[in-house]
Each structure stands twice: as C-alpha cells, then as structure tokens.
Amino acid sequence: MEKALSGLREDANDFYVPRVIKRTKGPITALAFLRDYVTPNVPVIITGLVDDWPAMRKWGDDDYLCDTIGRETSVTVAATPCGRADAVHTREEDNVEYFVMPEERAMTVQNALSHMRQSASTNLSSEESTDDILYVQTQNGNLATEFEALAKDVEEELPFASEAFGQKPDAVNLWIGTHLSTSSLHKDHYENLYVVIQGEKHFTLLPPTDVPYLHTQEFPPAIYSKHTDTHTWSVQPQTDTDKVPWIPVDTDKPDLQKFPKFKLATPVRCTVKPGEMLYLPAMWYHQVSQSSTNGDPVIAVNYWYDMAFDVKYCYWRYAGRDVSRRRYKYVRSHPLIASYWYGKGQSCMSVCVV
C-alpha cells in the first residue's frame, strides 16, 4: 500500500498539483470553467467578476451594514479565546485533545463590528490578545436567513457556475472577522466559490491526493465557554456525542516530529484580494487566515454547490483507507454538531472517516 501511495503522490505532483494558483480574468463561460478547472479539479482565482456588486462599495461602511441589517438586530457570532474555532486543542484540566467548537452568542451587528474593530486595532496576534475573538462564520446559508437584508448586494447565484454544475448553490454564507481568526485545516464536500469583499484571505491548499499524509484522527467534541463571573474561558467536553474526525496539523507551523507524514504533503499558498473569487474544488484541503488594514473587518461571501460523488470521490476514499478502516459517518448523525454547523442538519454537508 505504501508503494502505491508513493506512486500516487509522485504522479499527482508531476501531472496534477499546481505549483501556483492561476489567476484568470473574467468573465468566464460555463464551458471554459467546467473544462479548465472543474473537470481537472484544480483551483483558480477569477478576477473581474464582482466589480459591479453593490457589496463592493457598500459593505466597507459599518453604518451601512448596521442600518441595513438593523442596529438592534441580533445575529449569531462565534467567540473563542484564541481565534481557532472548530480546531483541535488540548484541555489543560485533563491534558486531552478535543475538537473544540466556539461559543455561540447572539449579538447586535453594531456591537459585533465595534468589538471586532477594537480587537483588530491592537495589532496583537491571537496568542497575545486577551480579548474575546469574534467571527461571523455560521455555515448554514446565513445570507438567506440572518443576513437576508444584505443579499440584494450580491448575486443570488453565479450563473456560469450554476450552468456548469447543473444546479443552484446549496448555500451562500457570509463571513465577517479579523486577522485574529483562522480556520483550521479541513475539506468540504462542496464545490466552493469564495468571494472576498474586504480585506484579504490567505489560503493554504492541499490536494485530495494528500489525504494519507494529514494525520486525520478522531477527537472527543467540546465547546468553548466563557464564565461571566470570572471572565475566564474553559473547554466543556460534550460527552453525549461521538468523536469527530479532524486534522490536528497546523500548516503554518507543522510539528513534523508529531506529524512526520506531513512532510510528504504538497501545500500551495495563495492570497485572495478584494473583488477576487477563488474556485476551491470539492475535497481540496484548506486552512485559511485573513488580514486587513486599519482594523477593518475582513468580509467574504462563499457559494457552495453540491459536489458530484463520481470516480474522483471513489479514488479519494481508496487513498484514504490507509488512514483508517472506519466507514463514513454524516455530521447529521451527530445532533449537537449538526445543529451547530449546519442549522440543525439543514445542509447535506458531511464529515467523513474513511
């Protein structure tokens, strides 16, 4: 098996994995998109497609966002002490590694944006910051629900992508955060078109063929909780749910002694700037950080289209069988996790253990 995986890695590096992520100028036809990027399953950054979106000129104004959504309207905001929600952390009390989800808060848009600006203006890193780190990151089609008032400022769908995939997007998500937040390494069962409105997003991408080298493990789930009386954080284990398969490797500073196989992985890095769209193919692994100037929030919208469970998916499952012999489980089989991630299981997104 090791010899076969080694051959797969060599072939992927020779024929498939790009050394840099290509940039191409839009508009782009459905045929060209399907032929050049979807079928070969390679990422691309497309420019010039969203310059005319009202969001590009309006969403940088906090007053516009607050007035449009409603200054006293509550929205769901993720809070952590470290900026790394949905990631593996070691709980000090028992020295056990957990997959830790954020504390979710209902906050007014005005308070959330004010808090983000104040936190970002300190120029501290997430390790140095003593403030709560907030991130609008619910991945349940929140642009059509909590942020419906903003939906008119972007496209409901991307016509070239809808034609190429033969369907409308399953979900459109809004993201608002600061440089203090990072999304840990993971993959999605969706074709992802990610549009940056303000700030920059920094992606570390790894191809599906790297699955044997990512040290996927199962971790007990937990949730961050802040105690209002002491203003301290704790990690609260969730004992009534199954373990969660996740990748514990931080691509920015991988511990190669702990995760030696990761040295065989082939990360590709790119930065997506305002007005640019990243096509992130289904099953590509990605870790995401962000940055902005003057403490401005980083704002993005992404469109999730259901992936095709075709022969590429079968090959990915085959390659991953060296990681574990477990069968696939769907997130919706975990009530707590399904409720948190996907709006009480409304999305068909799944997490898997091969």
UniProtKB/TrEMBL annotation:
SUPFAM superfamilies: Clavaminate synthase-like. Coiled coil: none annotated. Residues 136-322 form the JmjC domain. SMART domains: JmjC (SM00558). The lineage of its organism: Eukaryota, Ichthyosporea, Ichthyophonida, Sphaeroforma. Pfam families: Cupin_8. This is JmjC domain-containing protein. It comes from the Eukaryota.
